[in-house]
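name: query_chain
kind: protein
chains: 1
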Amino acid sequence: MKEIENELYAAGFEFVAGVDEAGRGPLAGPVCAAAVILPKDAVIEGVNDSKKLSAKKRDMLFDEIRNVAIAYAIEFVYPDVIDDINIRQATALAMHNAVENLKQKADFIIIDGNDNIPYDTSYRYVIKGDAKSQTIAAASILAKVSRDRLMEELDEKYPEYGFKKHKGYGTKVHMEAIQKYGVTEVHRKSFMTAKVLGREV
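structure:
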């Protein structure tokens, strides 16, 4: 999980930031991105792709990553912006904002995925990076836990939609709730297809 980082350290880079997102696909809630810079010698036991970890394990690692990190930043982009600029651009915006808000400037950025949206700093996209890089995996955990906690807060405001359980994803229960109660301000209007709404758009 440190092969990419060690290669970059050997090339002379000192502050390698990993970047990942959570919540690209849901019907409701923001997309969240995190950027994190870890010390060169950091080995955080159990860090892996956030989707492969239990919620309890993610919560434990969330605190450990923040305590160990040289710097980290977590950024949200909300549904109104997602609807305005599309989810790809909104995800890129969240990622760029996270990088820009690191208290320690990165000298190299490794980003999960295979996009080609550029950064001002030297960078590399890594396909399935959250399973290959400890730093990207750490960012994945920060983003996932942060977004999940926000969706749990939204569940208190909109209990009939079940956000606490499905975190805004298009489950059968969620789509049935949309069909029964309608679309809220936290739903992504651009994601509202005939299938989701149960009627023609």
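note: Residues 14 and 27 are 39 Å apart (CA to CA).
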